[in-house]
Design a protein that fits this description.
It is built from 19 helices and no strands. By secondary structure, the chain is mostly helical. The protein is globular and about 55 Å long.
């Protein structure tokens, strides 16, 4: 790769735009619910629709990036999801919004398989924590900036202009990407390095461990992204501006902590720490603390709730900083896209479940208490998966089934 640092920055920036695009609808949810006159259940369906196509297209996206030029797959997906965001600003019916959310999910489905393929092929183990933390920082900054500035802009101008401007402005990312993306020899599989077949991947215990672990991480993530603005405005009675400030601050602080966690994990590995110990400590420890603080947020007063939510989001970022570094090491360059696709398929079913289940609970109970209880339980289940179900974090030897089965 000509400039690993620049490509990592651009991947992080694309993740930022990715998460702004998928999360902006949740910021508009309180306004949108009243404008369309829909119930919490229907709002939950709209918030989860993105994940129907996003999750289901993951396996195909992973297959594609391990066999075709990953640069152009990522470019095409980026154009599709940016266009879907811009068009959302002109939608006036529930069905139109639903269709555009499905298109957004289809475009964004190529993102993480592409990130893993690029990083696994171009970045050594001792630097993968920071490279992946750049993507994780984008995951945090996207909702943070979206909530902070999107919420304020929507309060003043309405929700439609925000979608239009965000969608078209995102396309500016293409110019530096086309100049700095990896050369073709680093973007397509080399001769003789064919990806292992799916049935061989499915025999690896650690693959299933990362699938369960990512499902639990994503449940926490998508619960926050899709319902945190609504929770703060409708249940805790924050104004739209106060909600934007609190949630935006939490996610911006989390982005900084993700970068710090990635750097610290790389230093630990460089100093002789095993990838298994290092990556699992950050991932499982961060997820456990995130779940604990979110539990406090659900039962505390306004001031403690605000602090607990900020800490819950920060520790989620610490967790996310090392997740994909484990996948890239275990899968290796030949299978990074396919493994990531399968892992993201299972993991993002949480995006279908979390928004819809939360909407159902809210419709039945009128409060968020049980939604938080379930989220904390899922987080702790994820801790167990990363610690016990995922095996040693070391490269699989594909083509020799017994070598991969123990991972």
């Amino acid at each position: 790769m000509q400039d690993t640092g620049m490509v990592a920055v651009l991947l992080g920036l694309s993740a930022l735009l990715n998460y702004m695009d998928r999360g902006t609808l949740s910021i508009a949810a309180p306004i949108l619910k009243d404008e369309l006159g829909i119930s919490p259940v229907r709002l939950g369906e709209l918030l989860s629709a993105f994940f129907w196509t996003y999750a289901c297209a993951q396996a195909l996206a992973g297959w594609m990036v391990d066999r075709l030029n990953v640069n152009w797959i990522l470019t095409a997906g980026f154009i599709i999801w940016s266009a879907a965001t811009a068009l959302t600003g002109g939608a006036h019916a529930f069905a139109t919004l639903l269709a555009l959310r499905l298109l957004l999910g289809l475009g964004e489905s190529v993102a993480f398989p592409s990130y893993s393929r690029i990083i696994a092929y171009n970045v050594p183990e001792q630097k993968r924590g920071f490279a992946n933390s750049a993507v994780s920082a984008g995951q945090m900054l996207g909702p943070g900036l979206g909530i902070l500035f999107g919420g304020m802009l929507m309060a003043r101008y309405g929700w439609r202009p925000v979608f239009v401007i965000l969608g078209f402005a995102s396309l500016l990312w293409l110019a530096p990407w086309l100049r700095s993306m990896p050369p073709s020899r680093h973007a397509r599989p080399p001769h003789g390095a064919a990806a292992p077949p799916i049935h061989e991947l499915l025999r690896v215990r650690s693959l299933w461990g990362t699938c369960v672990g990512l499902f639990c991480i994503n449940y926490v993530n998508y619960f926050l992204i899709t319902w945190l603005p609504y929770f703060l405005v409708r249940e805790r009675h924050f104004t739209l501006r106060e909600m934007a400030t609190l949630a935006g601050t939490a996610y911006i602080a989390a982005a900084c902590c993700a970068l710090l966690a990635g750097r610290l994990s790389d230093r630990w590995v460089s100093a002789g720490g095993s990838p298994s110990l290092v990556r699992k400590t950050f991932t499982a420890g961060g997820l456990a603390l995130s779940g604990i603080f979110l539990g406090f947020a659900s039962v505390s007063g306004e001031a403690v709730c605000a602090g607990a939510l900020i800490l819950g989001v920060i520790f989620f970022a610490v967790c996310a900083s090392n997740v994909w570094a484990m996948t890239q090491t275990m899968a290796g360059p030949a299978a990074a896209g396919s493994w990531t696709g399968l892992q993201n398929f299972v993991g993002n079913m949480a995006g279908v479940l979390a928004p819809a289940l939360t909407g159902w609970i809210l419709d039945r109970s009128g409060e968020f208490y049980w939604a938080f209880v379930i989220t904390v339980g899922v987080a702790l289940t994820g801790v167990a998966a990363w610690v016990f179900l995922v095996g040693r974090v070391e490269p699989a030897i594909w083509g020799r089934g017994s070598s991969a089965e123990g991972i």
